[in-house]
Amino acid sequence: MSAESQENRTVEVLGVPEEVEDELLYLYFENKRRSGGGNLVSVKLEGSRALLLFEEAEVASRVLSKRAHVLSNAELTVRKPACKDPRRLLLRGVNPSSCQELVELYVENMMGMDMHDYTLYPSPGRDLVLVHFHQAFNKVLSSLPSAAA
Questions:
Q1: Residue 142 above 50 pLDDT?
Q2: What CATH number is attached to the domain comprising 13?
Q3: Does residue 42 sit in helix, strand or coil?
Q4: How far apart are CA 53 and CA 41, in angstroms?
Q5: Which Pfam family is one of this chain's hits (predicted)?
Q6: Strand pairing partners for 119?
């Protein structure tokens, strides 16, 4: 089973009430009439977030296309999980008036890097900055001193 096919079969659920157990999530998302779902391979529940892996990508698409999901009187947010790229990091909540040099210094100090190790891509509103590392992020982290990790 390829990672790409698994990616197409995975759905992220947010806003899961505390009292909801794995079994109830299974039953709801395997119920085609209620959720648009079908057979699940796994459910991983972590607090108010769950990752669902369906047997078929078509089922995941159907679940994603359904307008509203309600479970235990709570409206759930259902979406594709964020793509994980080991060479990218998104900084959120950046002050739009911050100069690029300040953001560069922040990245260099936090990551123990110099300016030739990454490229910054600010959003049009300048409140988000995508940091593109020139080597995989996990390699960057493993090169940090253990006290900084």
A1: no
A2: 3.30.70.330
A3: strand
A4: 5
A5: RRM_PARP14_3
A6: 132
Domain C-terminal end among 58, 79, 100: 79
CA pair distance 87, 131, nearest whole angstrom:
8
CATH code of residue 137:
3.30.70
Question: Mean of the pLDDT values across residues 121-127?
Answer: 92
| Helices and strands (H and E) in the chain: how many | 6, 8
User: Do both 75 and 12 map to the same domain?
Assistant: yes
Strand partners, 54: 40
Residue 88 banded pLDDT, cuts 50, 70, 90: confident
Q: What residues make up the domain containing 50?
A: 3-79
State how far the alpha carbon of 147 is from the alpha carbons of 32, 122, 137, 139, in Å.
50, 29, 18, 16
